[in-house]
Amino acid sequence: MKYFLKKGKTISKGFLYNFKGWKTNRKIVVIESDDWGGERTPNKAIFAKLLNAGLRVDKCAFSKFDTIESKTDLSSLFEVLSSVKDIKGKPAVMTANFNLANPDFQKIKESDFSKYYYIDYINTLDKYNRSQVLATIYEGISSGVFFPQSHSREHISPYLWLEEIRNGNESLKKAFDLQVYGLSRITSSEIVQFHLASQLYRNEKELDFVSKAMQDGLKLFESLFGFRSLSFIAPVYTWNDKIENLMNQNGLNIIQSSFYQNNFDPSNVKHFERKFHYTGQHNDNNQLYTVRNCLFEPSLNSKKDWVASCLEEIKYSFFMNKPAIISSHRLNYIGGLNEKNREDNLKHLKMLLIEIKDRWPLVEFMTSVELGKLIEKEIGIKNI
Predict the structure, then answer these.
(1) Which of 54, 40, 320 is nearest to 180 (CA)?
(2) Separation between Cα atoms, residue 177 and residue 309, nearest integer Å
(3) CATH class entry, domain 15-37+67-153+206-379
(4) Mean pLDDT across the chain
């Protein structure tokens, strides 16, 4: 009975995610991976100190496994991606969504938590003595296995974050003192706001900050990678119509999304309304939504068979003539805090890619932008 209930739930979910929107007979697979560039947990020693300070970082996979990427992380990932080719001879490619800034803890502290300062990605890499990372990323771009896009300038709402610290949030202050900003709600009962949602704002002043941060982040992106980001994924899937207008003004015409967004009213940012989306949907700006309909997040639950579950979701996507858009965050491929995490998950990823190729020999690997351009071309809207 449990089997049939589970099977029915999977079928219902596959139907829900894939019912509406653009359809194709082509077997298209897109892998979208968020959080590249962000610091999260700096190292093992800091993780231990966070735990000793009473923060339950051991309960959060992002705190346990996610840290700034290394050359080894990237080279190992690229080796797996390049090992499986599609029907056109192209390797599997990951759309890597980057945050290109992290808080400058020293300057923020010197301002008595009244002002926000950041360091860019290059200086973040220098902070961790990882100068070779950027050259490795360029190699991944050149070889067609790694395609950066924008995930906001930073993965934090500075106003909410610093206000919480000033108001006495001991959990965030303890983390700040250890140069950590990325605590999730599961680590402490004190964390009640979406302080990791960088597009969140409560008034015109904060909206102006978000607008300037988006422009600045996209300039950092173009100067670093040599091309513009055409798509955007909002941290914590949190944005509203005004944020979409800002995206549009900055040439971001593809909106990567879960099947829903956390839509918010600035007057009450503690309440979110789920706004549902589907691949091929357009808003009033003619911006295109692409919706993740498959999950491959093995770091979140080591007991789950993620290869089997992701293949099942891909099967339903293809059955309903939809591209398979796989969500697979950076933490799955990082070994800085736990080498076994990277090693195990890369084995799982290779198994997944091999199975995809074996089951669907006509598979085509695409980036989020390639898929977006294909959809726009077929629909007939020239926006990208």
Answers:
(1) 40
(2) 40
(3) alpha beta
(4) 94
